[in-house]
C-alpha cells in the first residue's frame, strides 16, 4: 500500500503548489506590488481581488461611449474617463488595477522619456492572445528585438520609401476614382469617409508590402481583420486569459484562420525567394527588401542561418506590417479630414500649397517632402488628442498647426511632450512610411475635392487601441475646379 500513500502525497503536493500559485496570482503578488507602488509615492485604489478596478472602468467607458459629444467638448472624459477620474482623485502619478495587474499613469515628460528609453527595464507586456494576431518586432525583447530591428530597418529607409511611392499613388488613385463615381454629375454628395480611408490604408500597405502578390496579400489581410475582431471581442469582454474557455466554434475558426494566413504567407515568401534568386523579381516592396536584407546578413556571417530570420519569423513580420500600418494611418487620415472640415481656413491653406507644388499633376516623392503646411497639419492632428495644457499652453485644446511652423523641437521646447510615434530605441519604424502615405492621400484629396462636415456627422472619438470615429465620418464632398 506504500505506492497509494506515495500517489496521495504527490497529488497533495501538486494540489498545494497549484493552490499557492492561485493565491499568489490573485492576492499575494498584487498586494506586494501595491505596497511597492505606494512606497514610491504613487496613489491608487486598494486592490480588489481578481477584478481590481476593471468592473468600474468598463462601466464608465461603456457609459461614456453611449452617446456622441459636442464638437468643441474635451474628448478625455469620453475616451479615457477612468484614467481621468483616477488622476483627479489620486494625483498625476497614479495607478489603476487592470485585473490583478497595476497600470501606472505617467504625465511628466522626463519620466515618460526615461521609460521609453530604458527598454530592458520596462519591457513590453506580452499578451498571449495577441500573438495570434501578430508577434514580430513590436513584441520582441532583448537580442531577438535588436536582430529583427537591424534586419527590418533597411526596408524603411527613405530611398526605399521612394521606390514604394507608386504603390501609394495607385491606392490613392482608386480612392479618388471611387469618390468621383459617387459624386458623378452632382455638385456635392455625402460620404462616410471612414470605411474608404480604412480601405485605402489596407490597400496601400498590401501593395507596398507584397507588390505583385498584392491580391493574395489583401485576402490574407482580410483574414487578419476577422481574427482581430474575434480577439478584440474577447479582450474587451474579459480580463483573465479565457482563451481555453472559448466557445469551440470560435476557437476552431480562429485556428483555421491562423493556419490559412501562415500557409498563404509562406507560399508568397517561398515564391518570392525563388524569384529573387533567379532575378525574376526586383526589390521594390517591403517583403523583397526584407528578404534581401536577411540574405545579406546571413552571407556576411559565413552563411550562419542563426543570424538571419527564419521563414516563420518573416511570416510574423508580414502579419505585423498589416496591423501596425493599417489602422494607424487610416485614423490619422480620418481625423485630418474631420479637422480640415471644421477649420476651412486650414483646408484652403493646405490646398493652396498642394496646388502650388503639384498643380494638377500626380504627386511625387520629392514634392511630398516639400509640403510644409500639410506636414504642420498632420503633426497637429497627431498632437491634438489628448493635449495637456501645462505642456502646450492655453491653446492646448485648440487646433493650431501654426505651432509646428518652426518644427517639432521648437513647438515642444525640447520636451518629450509630442511622441505620436513613440520615443527611444523602439520608436515607430514605419513613421516615414505613414507620413509619406498620408501626405500622398491628402494631396490627392485636396487636389480633387473640397469637403465639410455633414449635419449627420456625430462626433464620437472612441479609443480601441487607436482613436476611431465611433459612428463613422460623414463628410460632404465637392469637386474642386482648378
Ligand atoms: C500614423 C501612423 C502611425 C503611428 C501613430 C504609429 C505609432 C507607433 C508607436 C507609438 C509605436 C511605438 C510603440 C512602443 O513604444 O513600443 C510604433 C511602433 C511600431 N510601428 Fe508604428 N505607427 C504608425 C504607422 C506605422 C506603419 C505604417 C508601420 C509599418 C508599415 C508601423 C510599424 C511599426 C512597428 C513595426 C513598430 C514596432 C517597433 C519596435 O518595437 O521596434 N507603424 N508605432
Automatic annotation (TrEMBL):
Give the domain of life. Answer: Eukaryota
This protein's GO cellular component annotations are: membrane
Instruction: Tell me the compartments it is located in.
Output: Membrane
User: What positions does the entry give for heme binding?
Assistant: 428
- Keywords assigned: Heme, Iron, Membrane, Metal-binding, Monooxygenase, Oxidoreductase, Transmembrane, Transmembrane helix
Q: Please name the InterPro entries in this protein's record.
A: Cyt_P450 (IPR001128), Cyt_P450_CS (IPR017972), Cyt_P450_E_grp-I (IPR002401), Cyt_P450_sf (IPR036396), Cytochrome_P450_Monooxygen (IPR050665)
Q: Which GO terms describe its molecular function?
A: heme binding; iron ion binding; monooxygenase activity; oxidoreductase activity, acting on paired donors, with incorporation or reduction of molecular oxygen
Gene3D superfamilies xref list:
Cytochrome P450
Q: How does it sit in the membrane?
A: Single-pass membrane protein
> Where would you find the membrane-spanning parts of this chain?
6-28
Cofactor(s) named in the record: heme
- What family does the Swiss-Prot or TrEMBL record give for this protein? Belongs to the cytochrome P450 family.
The protein depicted here goes by the name: Uncharacterized protein
Provide the species name: Vicia faba (Broad bean)
Q: Source organism lineage? A: Eukaryota, Viridiplantae, Streptophyta, Embryophyta, Tracheophyta
